[in-house]
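Propose amino acids for all 115 sites.
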């Protein structure tokens, strides 16, 4: 039974201001099919459809990662690529300084994130 997936889907719905019922309707799922996931594992095709709908990774939906972005999203973001290149050229100490500065700068903007 995977309450983790159900919980993640509920959070995504809340963030997008839609109900589980609306999500089911939008994805042509049967009524209450998502809520039944508290009693059994969902079909992978359903989980993939939800990940695609919210444009998040399967690892995020299943709780294997806190990172929502898909690989395609990250690779399409030129600024993220620049930051990653910068990080690879920094010493371990300077890399940690950069991370610490980002945590300070953005902690208030992302209170629910584990920065």
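Proposal:
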């Amino acid at each position: 039974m995977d309450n983790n997936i159900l919980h993640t889907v509920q959070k995504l719905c809340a963030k997008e201001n839609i109900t589980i019922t609306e999500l089911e309707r939008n994805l042509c799922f049967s009524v209450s099919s998502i809520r039944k996931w508290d009693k059994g594992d969902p079909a992978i095709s359903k989980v993939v459809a939800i990940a695609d709908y919210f444009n998040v990774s399967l690892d995020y939906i299943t709780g294997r990662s806190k990172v929502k972005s898909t690989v395609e999203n990250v690779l399409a973001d030129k600024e993220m690529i620049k930051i990653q290149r910068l990080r690879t050229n920094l010493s371990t100490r300077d890399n940690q300084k950069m991370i610490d500065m980002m945590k300070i700068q953005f902690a208030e903007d992302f209170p629910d994130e584990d920065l």
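The chain has a mean pLDDT of 84. Residues 77-106 form one domain.
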